């Protein structure tokens, strides 16, 4: 796995471009987030450069004059790294490296670097390596320019091109191997989820650093790793959460989302994100103290749509209310979000209110139903186990009677299925 992270602070310059689609204010906010990413990766931001353009420069991303301005800063500040807030093409990276004579990273490469340094388990390392290789594959050309001849034509094919093709073949083979490995991991996760299927399952989702892990610790009384930096959590963590004297649910903490998240990363973390798609409901944790929390909500919702989890019943959990200087904003949010609650996970404010909101959601979305099935019909018994939570089981002659909590939308289908199977 490729790891770029340096244990020492690496001085860097950030570059952002405002276009017709993004205002200068938005660009500054994006650079604020890029600065947090750089800090998480071990960088020290010494300067920020912005430019207003109608369209991006195909050769160098920014204009020629801006390239000269950045070069002057690189020389003056003795900076070894320049980070751009958007994805760069292989041509743009090559041209910028030649002009600036320093290392160039784009936003995706920086995020991949952070994930590489944060990955601890075998699954996370495999997912990150796959995303890195998929990112690297179309950018191989610039890695081997020192080996290729500078002229073309018949009979002039240089060793550089041969090396590129060899590398591409090796990377494609490795990608195929990693995909197979992740598919096996996905099957293992499916088996684990089947073992938990009798429990009601929730998932914590949200923008990175919104406070999901802190909230899981508070709800479950566990010690999930928490750090005030982006992407502190990569691997899903599941804990038992008591809602009342006789009610327990399983809650899973998941990787945080972020704007401009590399699509390779979303695809690679498929087995991890399946914890979200298989959940019965979601707690969407929002850092309400952030100036851009509305946009962050949109980013999370778009990602949930991409992975097929947008239809899950959801409670909006507006966290970090203790950091708000202007609390009037809390008055308007219930009108925009029908099911919401305001908390501070760090200070334990209104956690009982959150649990009550979850209980109300479960009462609305789930119903209790009793099924009577022949003990010989193990296939149907297994289907029922995999669909809902078994609250009580009794036996009557050759039948098993199961009192279950099931999703309201599944009730009619299951009643019809049991009726059909029970018919002689």
Quick recap:
With about 425 residues, this protein is an alpha/beta fold. The chain is about 45% helix and about 20% strand. The chain is built from 14 helices and 13 strands.
Report on this model:
- 44% of the residues lie in helices and 21% in strands.
- It is α/β, with parallel strands linked by helices.
- The chain folds into 4 domains: 10-117, GTPase HflX, N-terminal domain (Rossmann fold); 119-190; 198-359, P-loop containing nucleotide triphosphate hydrolases (Rossmann fold); 365-422, Alpha-Beta Plaits.
- It has a 6-stranded mixed beta sheet, sandwiched between helices. It has a 4-stranded parallel beta sheet with strand order 2-1-3-4, sandwiched between helices.
- α1 (24-40) packs parallel to α4 (107-118), α4 runs antiparallel to α5 and α5 (122-136) runs antiparallel to α6 (159-195).
- The longest helix is centred in the middle third of the chain and has 37 residues, at 159-195.
- It is globular.
- The model is unreliable at 142-158 (pLDDT under 50).
In CATH terms, what is the fold-level topology of the largest domain?
Answer: Rossmann fold
Q: SSE order in H/E notation?
A: EHEHEHEHHHEHEEHHEHEHEHEHEEH
Structural class: alpha/beta
Oligomer: single chain
- The low-confidence runs, each spanning 5 or more residues with pLDDT under 50, are 142-158
According to CATH, the homologous superfamily of the largest domain is P-loop containing nucleotide triphosphate hydrolases
